[in-house]
Amino acid sequence: MTRKRRRRRESEDEIRNRVVNETALYLTTCLDHPELAVSIPVIPAGSGEFPRSLAGNFWRHVLFE
Predict the structure, then answer these.
(1) CB atoms within 10 A of CB 30
(2) How far apart are CA 42 and CA 45, in angstroms?
(3) CB under 8 Å to 29, separation ≥6 — which residues?
(4) Which domain range does residue 18 map to?
(5) Residue 2 domain-assigned?
(6) C-alpha–C-alpha distance, residues 43 and 51, integer Å
(7) What does the pLDDT read at residue 24?
(8) How would you write the pLDDT of the chain (65 residues) with one tens digit per residue?
(9) How far is 26 from 50, CA to CA, in rounded Å?
């Protein structure tokens, strides 16, 4: 019989420190490897809009590739 392990609840300080450390690691990796950066498409406000298919393609690339 296996016991379920209960996760210890993180304090707010622990959560904040974890998030800051994860973000710092992500930013450091991106700065060290600019080829990994995701280009975010932009369009000047009021000058038109993106095709609906662009959102799906963008998020598919960001989330699953």
Answers:
(1) 13
(2) 9
(3) 36
(4) 12-39+51-64
(5) no
(6) 11
(7) 96
(8) 566 777 789 999 999 999 999 999 989 998 999 888 777 888 888 888 888 888 888 888 888 87
(9) 28
